[in-house]
Design brief:
Blueprint lengths: L3 E2 L2 H23 L4 E7 L3 H16 L3 E7 L5 H12 L6 E4 L9 H5 L13 H8 L8 H13 L7 E5 L6 H10 L3 E5 L6 H6 L3 E4 L17 E4 L3 E4 L8 E4 L4 H5 L4 E2 L7 H20 L1
Parallel strand pairs: 1-11, 2-3, 2-4, 5-6, 5-7, 7-8, 8-11
Antiparallel strand pairs: 9-10
Helix pairs in contact: 1-10, 6-7, 6-10
Bound molecules: guanine (GUN).
The site of guanine (GUN) has 9 residues, from strand 4 and helix 6.
Subunit structure: Homodimer.
GO molecular function: methenyltetrahydrofolate cyclohydrolase activity; methylenetetrahydrofolate dehydrogenase (NADP+) activity
Protein name: Bifunctional protein FolD
């Protein structure tokens, strides 16, 4: 059997088109354009690329992108002062503080300064609490995107055994909450889990978010399972030439796709969904605030 490939690029495109249509409708009916503020502290090269791509996608969806780039030695108090100013700015509907922050800044403190109704990353304690309690929350983008991808191949997740590998605040924990909200029986597995392979073999839906290249092997997967690979790992690829690298997920893709029913590739699976869901959250926040 060869798994169905879940095309994250195509699904993300469709989400972005829906957002663009929603933005156009807001402009027509209410006369305003949603704005997303992104705060970047320092010069981390990967973060610079992410922030640039977020800005491009925001403008493509017809929204305003407001970028604040601060030097690496900016104090925590200065970052907090900026976040508070953005909280009070009526033209700003969403605020995203790009992570990681430099070592002298406590990301937890800064993130929790964001007005929960502008917290388009869904990372404040208020939104995390709302999600766990099953209340209307702004939901973290990568887990939200993962659920949308599962829905393209599985109409009803009710009663399915879902295993989430990883327990990060950004992905594992919120993804487990979202799967529970879909009435899955959810197991969160992690580095201390006993019989990890066996736990994975019981999964109808297996989501890997551990950041370990190709850790999940083909024989960990239940035949026909839906496999969502959240990992994006850069590994050496000497076969492509000296010093070359390639991106791989947390799942051994070739082996897994011979067993799974459906699988997300890396790249082109979950990755593109993150920005798409960020735009979706920004539109949602804008509508709630002033729609
Ligand atoms: N850095 C890597 N991923 C993310 C994300 O989803 N949100 C933020 N704010 N920073 C990140």
């Amino acid at each position: 059997m060869s798994a169905r490939i879940i095309d994250g690029k195509a699904v993300a495109k469709s989400v972005r088109e829906d957002v663009a249509a929603g933005v156009a409708a807001l402009e027509k009916d209410h006369g305003f354009t949603p704005g997303l503020a992104v705060v970047l502290v320092g010069e981390d090269p990967a973060s610079q690329v992410y922030v640039r791509n977020k800005g491009i996608a925001t403008r493509e969806a017809g929204m305003r992108s407001i970028e604040h780039k601060l030097p690496a030695d900016t104090s925590q108090d200065e970052v907090i002062a900026l976040v508070r100013r953005l909280n009070g700015d009526d033209e700003v509907d969403g605020i995203l503080v790009q992570l990681p922050l430099p070592g002298h800044i406590d990301a937890n403190v800064v993130i929790n300064e964001i007005d929960p109704d502008k917290d388009v990353d869904g990372l404040t304690e208020v939104n995390a609490g709302r999600l766990v309690l099953g209340k209307d929350a702004l939901v973290p983008c990568t887990p939200q995107g993962s659920i949308l991808l599962i829905k393209t191949v599985m109409e009803d997740m009710s009663g399915a055994n879902a295993v989430v590998l990883g327990r990060s605040i950004l992905v594992g924990k919120p993804l487990a909450s979202l799967l529970l909200a879909e009435n899955c029986t959810v197991t969160t597995a992690h580095s201390r889990t006993k019989d990890l392979e066996e736990v994975c073999r019981g999964a109808d839906i297996l989501c890997a978010a551990v950041g370990r290249p190709e850790m999940v092997k083909g024989d960990w997967i239940k035949p026909g399972a839906v496999v969502i690979d959240v990992g994006i790992n850069r590994v050496d690829a000497p076969e492509k030439g000296e010093g070359k690298s390639r991106l791989v997920g947390d799942v051994d893709y070739d082996a897994a796709s011979a067993v799974a029913g459906a699988i997300t590739p890396v790249p082109g699976g979950v990755g593109p969904m993150t920005i798409a869901c960020l735009l979706k959250n920004t539109l949602t926040a804008a509508k709630r605030r002033r729609g």
